């Protein structure tokens, strides 16, 4: 109830006035909104000419609890193509690694608008066209598991040899 | 005041307010500086932190419980993250007054109140002055009803108290027992003392007894036992009536049609009558003058009409009969002609058939005749040469003998050297 009141107030305010580069994608209920953001810096070749879509999912304890915010991808064949931006803190599935969105970094003073502006500035400040090192770490996990499996097999083989020799 | 005290105060001040000040419909726009950054409403009971940031007391309380690191004495200000230990409930009077001055709509607008009051007054307005507030029915003290929890508007309360409250007691007229008003209807349906009529009352049983005794009566009542039969009869009668009405309607339609036909007939008869009169009037006008017709016409309108009609119809009949006889004559004539042509055609076809038969027979003979030496040749392999010579001679013989009649000329002209083909002679024979 508290969340709904606050969200309807925010929506009214954003419909009245919204900062440049931010627009409302979808806000037909008070549980999930979609916002479109654009990087306004035309000199940045990574984000130039693209629009990205953010999905906000609100719990009923908003704004005391942070909303879940992530980028979502709309296929390039649709009317409004929305890719996932390249950023060292944004995973290819759209999840954003941002202190502001964690429960420790969140403050109830934040609004949907301020979160959008934070993410916008986070993209604007970036110049590295890369993803977080997720693939390297998972590869390391696979290699480690394989090593464990090999040592286990070696142990079993040793036992079998012992039994065969009658020891 | 430190945080612990503040939280304790917040927990104690858990008042049950009539009006939720955050849910109000603000009529005028208010300055964004008067807005709590957490709930985005004008401050409700504002409190101030060390860093001079102001929040509602309730909003700050929920923020502190969520964000305070376990049991420490400080927590970060939601706006500027300054570590805070002390909270002051003393905020400038100016701020409180400005917040209380904002115009709001009465929260009972759904019930019909259209008042617009300052926010500071809305609490007392709803408590004391608003006529649309829902009140609980004070049933315990007034009408001794036990379970009336219905909410009644203040303006309707007097009426509810005296007449409408479903928990008021009512007395059953028949058995004298006292039941609550809300179950009176149900009670009357089942009350054993209510006098009710026999189930067969619609078929003429005039007995009326108490409900308790009615079962015994119904076992004896003869009308009840034939009730189903009567019911079936009733339904049948009803359906018959329905069909009858339907038929009546159709009958009316037919009668209308008949009347129409009659009127058109009459019309046409009158027209023909008028024609005949006109035809007659021309010579009459020469001989006797107009006066005679005038005297004659009104004298026998109906009589002359009927006689003229019959005459006309008879003449029509006569002419039709003549036409029919003519038609039959023509028909017989046609019949005779057709049979003649058919006979002629049959004769021709028969002749043709005879010719064909003859030709076929001759062809068969020839084929047999030809086949025989071949068979002989097959059996006697050594005498080939002599046979072929004899074949030549026989073939000439055959052509001259086997095609008699009209085809003989052509058959001879073929000569002995020409080889015979199965398709040759048959057709030549049938040519006429």
TrEMBL record, chain A:
<dbReference type="InterPro" id="IPR016135">
    <property type="entry name" value="UBQ-conjugating_enzyme/RWD"/>
</dbReference>
<feature type="domain" description="UBC core">
    <location>
        <begin position="2"/>
        <end position="165"/>
    </location>
</feature>
<dbReference type="InterPro" id="IPR000608">
    <property type="entry name" value="UBC"/>
</dbReference>
<protein>
    <submittedName>
        <fullName>Ubiquitin conjugating enzyme</fullName>
    </submittedName>
</protein>
<keyword id="KW-0833">Ubl conjugation pathway</keyword>
<dbReference type="Pfam" id="PF00179">
    <property type="entry name" value="UQ_con"/>
</dbReference>
<dbReference type="InterPro" id="IPR050113">
    <property type="entry name" value="Ub_conjugating_enzyme"/>
</dbReference>
Automatic annotation (TrEMBL), chain B:
<feature type="compositionally biased region" description="Low complexity">
    <location>
        <begin position="399"/>
        <end position="413"/>
    </location>
</feature>
<feature type="zinc finger region" description="TRAF-type">
    <location>
        <begin position="160"/>
        <end position="214"/>
    </location>
</feature>
<feature type="region of interest" description="Disordered">
    <location>
        <begin position="271"/>
        <end position="306"/>
    </location>
</feature>
<protein>
    <recommendedName>
        <fullName>TRAF-like signal transducer</fullName>
    </recommendedName>
</protein>
<feature type="region of interest" description="Disordered">
    <location>
        <begin position="375"/>
        <end position="432"/>
    </location>
</feature>
<dbReference type="InterPro" id="IPR013083">
    <property type="entry name" value="Znf_RING/FYVE/PHD"/>
</dbReference>
<dbReference type="GO" id="GO:0008270">
    <property type="term" value="F:zinc ion binding"/>
</dbReference>
<dbReference type="Pfam" id="PF13445">
    <property type="entry name" value="zf-RING_UBOX"/>
</dbReference>
<dbReference type="Pfam" id="PF02176">
    <property type="entry name" value="zf-TRAF"/>
</dbReference>
<feature type="compositionally biased region" description="Polar residues">
    <location>
        <begin position="384"/>
        <end position="398"/>
    </location>
</feature>
<feature type="compositionally biased region" description="Basic and acidic residues">
    <location>
        <begin position="421"/>
        <end position="432"/>
    </location>
</feature>
<feature type="domain" description="RING-type">
    <location>
        <begin position="36"/>
        <end position="81"/>
    </location>
</feature>
<dbReference type="InterPro" id="IPR027370">
    <property type="entry name" value="Znf-RING_euk"/>
</dbReference>
<dbReference type="InterPro" id="IPR001293">
    <property type="entry name" value="Znf_TRAF"/>
</dbReference>
<feature type="domain" description="TRAF-type">
    <location>
        <begin position="160"/>
        <end position="214"/>
    </location>
</feature>
<keyword id="KW-0479">Metal-binding</keyword>
<feature type="domain" description="TRAF-type">
    <location>
        <begin position="97"/>
        <end position="146"/>
    </location>
</feature>
<keyword id="KW-0863">Zinc-finger</keyword>
<dbReference type="InterPro" id="IPR001841">
    <property type="entry name" value="Znf_RING"/>
</dbReference>
<feature type="zinc finger region" description="TRAF-type">
    <location>
        <begin position="97"/>
        <end position="146"/>
    </location>
</feature>
<keyword id="KW-0862">Zinc</keyword>
<dbReference type="InterPro" id="IPR017907">
    <property type="entry name" value="Znf_RING_CS"/>
</dbReference>
């Amino acid at each position: 109830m508290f969340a709904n009141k606050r969200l309807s107030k925010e929506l009214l305010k954003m419909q009245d006035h919204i900062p440049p580069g931010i627009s409302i994608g979808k806000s037909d209920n008070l549980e999930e909104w979609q916002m479109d953001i654009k990087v306004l810096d035309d000199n940045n070749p990574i984000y130039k000419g693209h629009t990205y879509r953010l999905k906000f999912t609100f719990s009923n304890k908003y704004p005391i609890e942070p909303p879940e915010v992530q980028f979502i991808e709309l296929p390039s064949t649709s009317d409004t193509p929305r890719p996932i931006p390249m950023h060292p803190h944004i995973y290819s599935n759209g999840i954003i690694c941002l202190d502001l969105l964690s429960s420790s970094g969140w403050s109830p003073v934040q609004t949907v608008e301020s979160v959008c502006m934070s993410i916008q500035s986070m993209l604007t400040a970036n110049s590295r066209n890369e993803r977080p090192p997720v693939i390297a770490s998972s590869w390391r996990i696979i290699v480690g598991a394989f090593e464990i499996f090999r040592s286990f097999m070696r142990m079993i083989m040793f036992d079998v040899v012992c039994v065969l020799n009658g020891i | 005041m430190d945080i612990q005290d503040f939280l304790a105060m917040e927990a104690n001040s858990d008042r049950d307010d009539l009006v939720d000040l955050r849910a109000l419909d603000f009529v005028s726009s208010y300055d964004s500086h008067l807005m709590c950054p957490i709930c985005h409403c004008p401050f409700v009971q504002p409190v101030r932190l060390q860093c001079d940031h102001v929040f509602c007391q309730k909003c700050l309380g929920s923020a502190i419980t969520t964000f305070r690191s376990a049991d420490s004495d400080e927590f970060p200000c939601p706006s500027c993250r300054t570590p805070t230990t002390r909270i002051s409930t003393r905020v400038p009077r100016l701020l409180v007054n400005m917040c209380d001055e904002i115009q709001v709509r009465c929260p009972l607008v759904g019930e019909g109140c259209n008042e617009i009051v300052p926010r500071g007054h809305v609490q007392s307005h709803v408590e004391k002055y608003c006529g649309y507030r829902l009140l609980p029915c004070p049933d315990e003290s007034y009408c001794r009803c036990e379970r009336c929890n219905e909410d009644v508007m203040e303006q309707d309360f007097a009426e509810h108290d005296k007449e409408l409250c479903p928990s008021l007691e009512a007395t059953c007229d028949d058995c004298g027992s006292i039941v609550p008003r809300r179950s009176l209807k149900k009670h009357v349906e089942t009350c054993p003392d209510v006098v009710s009529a026999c189930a067969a009352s619609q078929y003429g049983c005039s007995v009326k007894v108490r409900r308790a005794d009615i079962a015994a009566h119904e076992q004896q009542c003869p009308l009840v036992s034939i009730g189903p039969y009567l019911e079936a009869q009733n339904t049948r009668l009803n359906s018959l009536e329905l069909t009858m009405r339907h038929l009546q309607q159709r009958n009316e339609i037919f009668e209308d049609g008949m009347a129409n036909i009659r009127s058109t007939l009459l019309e046409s008869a009158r027209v023909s009558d008028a024609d005949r009169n006109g035809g007659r009037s021309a010579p009459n006008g020469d001989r006797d003058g107009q006066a005679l017709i005038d005297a004659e016409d009104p004298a026998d309108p109906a009589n002359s009409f009927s006689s003229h009609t019959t005459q006309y119809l008879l003449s029509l009949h006569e002419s039709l009969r003549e036409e029919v006889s003519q038609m039959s004559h023509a028909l017989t004539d046609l019949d005779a002609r057709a049979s003649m042509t058919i006979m002629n055609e049959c004769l021709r076809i028969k002749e043709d058939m005879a010719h064909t038969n003859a030709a076929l027979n001759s062809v068969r003979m020839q084929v047999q005749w030809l086949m025989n030496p071949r068979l002989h040749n097959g059996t006697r392999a050594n005498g080939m040469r002599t046979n072929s010579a004899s074949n030549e001679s026989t073939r000439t013989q055959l052509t001259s003998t086997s095609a008699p009649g009209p085809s003989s000329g052509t058959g001879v002209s073929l000569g002995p050297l020409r080889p015979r083909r199965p398709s040759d002679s048959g057709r030549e024979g049938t040519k006429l």
